[in-house]
Design goal:
Blueprint lengths: L1 H24 L8 E12 L9 E13 L3 H16 L8 H25 L11 E12 L3 E11 L6 E10 L4 E2 L2 H4 L5 H18 L25 E3 L3 E6 L12 E6 H4 L10 H10 L1
Parallel strand pairs: 2-3
Antiparallel strand pairs: 1-2, 3-4, 4-5, 5-6, 7-8, 8-9
């Protein structure tokens, strides 16, 4: 009997070991998009002989999608994000060298665009062609249904002031397509959603201790006719967040404006079985 029990125990151990090896060498496909972070920092001088003429500072910190259980969906996501981040010229560069090649191209463009002007500078001129580019790509919501991604771009080419923009993409992982407003909202939703955005913008302003109290947006510096759903949004467990970049709905000094709309404010405008329905249901049940 003891010998038989020993065989049983040994058999169980062998089976468990085989299962462990199976998961180690043949892991199951992830339900989420796997990303890897890549970074690159570089300074390109307009002239190596005279570094006082100026330089281009490049900083990049990018999460790149590298794996997903459905290759076609992954390829579509990669195509869209790479085009937005780097342009389609760099579509097929390997991830581990992509940022280096892109930085080299930025450096060449910087020198080509400014070299002739630099040659015309007098020796006593204080003008310097100092430019900078900061590029970030970051994964946000990443579950088995939706992959949200943001791109932040800061550019200073020596004008009146630098420009910073943020763009967002939300991918439906059932088909790999970008989720647009019309995929979420039903019918003639634009007018009511615009009013909700304006009311939330006014509320946020008046709850911010650092801004003057406003009775209405008409007395503010916002461009009222431009405040409307703009297609630039990201989603999370509790809300849709619309992002308006500088100059879009207000003067430059106002900067970026983010309006967070909890699902409880907007769920009545949404289509049945829209891609966010599971998030909306969970959020409403938790409130």
């Amino acid at each position: 009997m003891k010998k038989r029990n020993s065989f049983v125990i040994v058999g169980i151990i062998l089976i468990l070991g085989a299962v462990v090896l199976l998961f180690v060498f043949f892991p199951t496909s992830s339900k989420t998009v796997l990303t890897e972070n890549f970074s690159h920092t570089e300074k390109v001088y307009l002239s190596e002989e005279d570094t006082t003429l100026g330089a281009l500072s490049i900083e990049m910190n990018i999460d790149l999608p590298i794996s997903y259980r459905n290759k076609n969906i992954l390829d579509n996501i990669k195509t869209i994000l790479r085009t937005e981040l780097f342009g389609d010229v760099f579509m097929y560069f390997p991830e581990d060298s992509l940022l280096n090649y892109y930085a080299a191209e930025l450096g060449r463009e910087y020198i080509d665009n400014n070299a002739d002007f630099a040659k015309k500078l007098s020796d006593d001129s204080r003008l310097a062609f100092n430019n900078s580019i900061i590029l970030e790509g970051f994964a946000l919501l990443n579950d088995e249904n939706i992959f949200s991604y943001g791109i932040s771009r800061f550019v200073d080419f020596g004008g009146a002031h630098p420009i910073k923009t943020r763009l967002f993409y939300n991918f439906n992982l059932k088909n790999g397509k970008v989720i647009f407003e019309d995929d979420i909202f039903e019918g003639e939703y634009q007018s009511e959603l615009t009013e909700i955005i304006k009311n939330k913008l006014l509320q946020d302003n008046n709850e911010n201790e650092g801004t003057p109290h406003l009775e209405n947006l008409e007395s503010s510096d916002f461009f009222l006719e431009e405040i409307k759903p703009n297609g630039n949004f990201y989603v999370n467990d509790e809300s849709i967040c619309f992002v308006f970049n500088p100059y879009e709905i207000a003067p430059y000094y106002v900067g970026e404006t983010e309006v967070v709309l909890p699902y409880k404010l907007i769920h009545h405008l949404m289509k049945p079985k829209n891609p966010l329905e599971y998030l909306v249901t969970a959020a409403l049940n938790n409130n």
